Amino acid sequence: MTLRAGVLAVQGDVSEHAEAIERAAAAHGETADVVEIRKSGLLPDCDVLLMPGGESTTISRLIHREGIASEIEAHVAAEKPVLATCAGLIVAASDAHDDRVETLNLVDVTVERNAFGRQKDSFEAPLDIDGLASPFPAVFIRAPLIDYVADDVDVLASWDDRAVAVRDGPVVGTSFHPELTDDPRIHDLAFFENVES
After folding, report:
1. What is the set of active-site residues?
2. Full DSSP string of the chain
3. What span, in angstroms and rounded, lies between the C-alpha atoms of 146 and 143?
4. For the stretch 99-117, what's the b/e string if a residue is b when 16 or more beta carbons lie within 10 angstroms of its beta carbon?
5. CA–CA separation, 184 vs 95, rounded Å?
6. Strand pairing category for 31-37 and 136-140
7. Rounded-to-integer distance, Cα 20 and Cα 187, Å
8. What is the rounded distance in angstroms from the CA atom of residue 109 to the CA atom of residue 126?
């Protein structure tokens, strides 16, 4: 089976996410046909969507300018899976506490940009994540803090008593960068059912 995976490619960790979804698909005996989404018209044909990290204000501005924002909203309305990481989570949130970011309200959480510090404050931490049998090596780089989680949103992982991974319907959002590790299990959680990890 071939999974058609869209990677939002207006800005951010595009190649890393492409490689991560290819690894995750291969682990399930499938292949991933990766489509880089830089303009409208491509996402409707995709089975899944990855919204990478990067600069949330830039990503927000470009997806609205290029007509991709409404296609992302339609993708989620059709219950198609999304993995939104770091800046992708900020854009997917209901509120980013920043008027420069026009969020998509795909995940009923609010976030604070760069709450874990600057680039020099980046760190890796072993995270216990619901659905995974062993800790995940989470990489935090200028990571957002999830400061409010609605009652119907599942918290999948916390660090220092702060939510850092959530699921709202078909959308999985993480404060950290799972694509920067060789571990495909976050992509598994987002896109493959009945995963034994």
Report:
1. 86, 177, 179
2. -EEEEEEE-SSSSHHHHHHHHHHHHHHTT-EEEEEEESSTTSGGG-SEEEE--S-HHHHHHHHHHTT-HHHHHHHHHTT--EEEETHHHHHHEEE-S-TT------EEEEEETTTT--GGG-EEEEE--TT-SS-EEEEESSPPEEEEE-TTSEEEEEETTEEEEEEETTEEEESS-GGGSS--HHHHHHH-SS---
3. 10
4. eebebbebbbbbbbbbebe
5. 28
6. unpaired
7. 7
8. 23
Quote the CA–CA distance of 87 and 24 in Å, as a whole number: 22
pLDDT digits (tens, 9 = 90+) for 8-65: 999 866 898 899 999 989 988 899 999 999 999 999 999 999 999 888 999 999 999 9
Protein fold of 2-191: Rossmann fold (3.40.50)
Q: By the 8 A CB rule, do 183 and 16 touch?
A: no
What distances in angstroms separate CA 110 from CA 93, 94, 106, 158, 161, one per listed residue? 6, 6, 11, 15, 16
Residue numbers of the chain with a pLDDT score lower than 50:
194-197
- Does pTM surpass 0.90? yes
- Cα separation of 196 and 188, whole Å? 9
Q: CB–CB of 101/138 below 8 Å?
A: no
Is the separation of the CB atoms in 106 and 82 below 8 Å? yes
